[in-house]
Amino acid sequence: MAVAPAPARPVGVILSPDDGAALAARVVVRFHLRAFARQEQPARDGDVEGVHELRVATRRLRAALRFFAPVLPARFVENARREIQWLASTIGAVRDLDVLGQLVTARAPRLDPDVRSALGPIAIYIHDRRAATHAALVEALDSARCRRLLDRLAAFAESMPPRRSQETLGEVAPSLLRPLLRAVLSAGRGIGENPQPEALHRLRVRGKRLRYALETLRGLGGKHVVKMLRRLVALQDLIGDHQDAVTAMERLRAYGATAEVPPATLLSVGALVEGFGRRARKLRCRFPETWRRLDRSRLRTGLQGELVRRRARRRPLPPRLRATGS
Q1: Is the pLDDT of residue 254 over 90?
Q2: What is the C-alpha to C-alpha distance for residues 60 and 153, in angstroms, rounded to an integer?
Q3: Which domains occur in the chain, in start order?
Q4: More confident call, 163 vs 289
Q5: SS (HEC) of the chain
Q6: Mean pLDDT, residues 302-324 taken together
Q7: Please, is 313 exposed, middle or buried when counting C-beta atoms within 10 Å of its C-beta (0-12, 13-18, 19+)?
């Protein structure tokens, strides 16, 4: 029997250096709003992947507003980012428990059978907490605050920029990207050979902003943009796995500190924490080499050169946007 192909994912927004920067910002926001709309019902239904994709769409919305902030109304950006952060924290509470459940399920087969048999209360705890946070998410999505936020973002995305907004994306892209790149380099170079979880998490946040910005500007770049994105993804995957392990340890320790945990389950908690601790240490050992592959002067110079050359070659044509996907 033939297997039905998975539904195609939207390929993204393709921007040109000739596009107006303020108009490009609106198109990007509209694209991520549509991604949010596609995942809202699956997330409401409790679908794990739907919650994950809703969180990604929300993060990308916030990152887009941060990236394009210099060419957008300051008050709108500040208010929208604050409200999106509120919504993202509600989605994140559900997603974090999904990740915890997946990690415990994956680690359980490695435990001694006697230890594994006492994991039942942990599974119940994760299930109950997940149900509570999911109910809070649905309540947030139903709230007037959320609908007001989405309506404002939609109105902004469909609006036309002021006539005085003449800067093209090619003209402003290097200056928009430069502080994000500097922030990543500052965070990464300060970590050293003995990475601490807090420093890695800070680098992860900054790296994600740079990655989202480069994905937005992919149409303006060339091979150096592609290479930088590939290495950013590798770094993000490494640090993300590390953060998941560290967060799992913290949550399990907090659960183990409650009075209701049976003694046998405490042993299971300890075994899980030890396993996640080993995983985190192995990932930290891999960090320096992964970072060195990204922190290459030739790669940075090529990346910045591609964007500057695209700016210099701008043709005197009316701005146009080519958006793909739904």
Answers
A1: yes
A2: 13
A3: 12-160 (1.40.20.10), 170-314 (1.40.20.10)
A4: 289
A5: CCCCCCCCCCCCEECCCCCEHHHHHHHHHHHHHHHHHHHHHHHHCCCHHHHHHHHHHHHHHHHHHHHHHHHCCHHHHHHHHHHHHHHHHHHHHHHHHHHHHHHHHHHHHHCCHHHHCCCHHHHHHHHHHHHHHHHHHHHHHHCHHHHHHHHHHHHHHHCCCCCCCCCEHHHHHHHHHHHHHHHHHHHHHCCCCCCCHHHHHHHHHHHHHHHHHHHHCHHHCCHHHHHHHHHHHHHHHHHHHHHHHHHHHHHHHHHHCCCCCCHHHHHHHHHHHHHHHHHHHHHHHHHHHHHHHHCCHHHHHHHHHHHHHHHHCCCCCCCCCEECCC
A6: 57
A7: exposed
Distance (Å, whole) CA 110 – CA 89? 32
The residue type of 241 is: D
Other C-beta atoms closer than 10 Å to the C-beta of 294 total 19
pLDDT at 320 over 80: no
The amino acid sitting at 277 is G
Tokens of 316: 């005197």
- Nearest to 25, CA basis, from 326, 307, 319, 325: 319
Among 26-40, 102-116, 212-226, 302-316, which is the least confidently predicted range?
Answer: 302-316
Written as six digits, the tokens of 97 are 């428990």
pTM, to two decimals:
0.87
Give pLDDT tens digits for 91-136: 999 999 999 999 999 999 999 999 999 999 999 999 999 999 999 9
In the block, residue with structure tokens 């957008």: 72
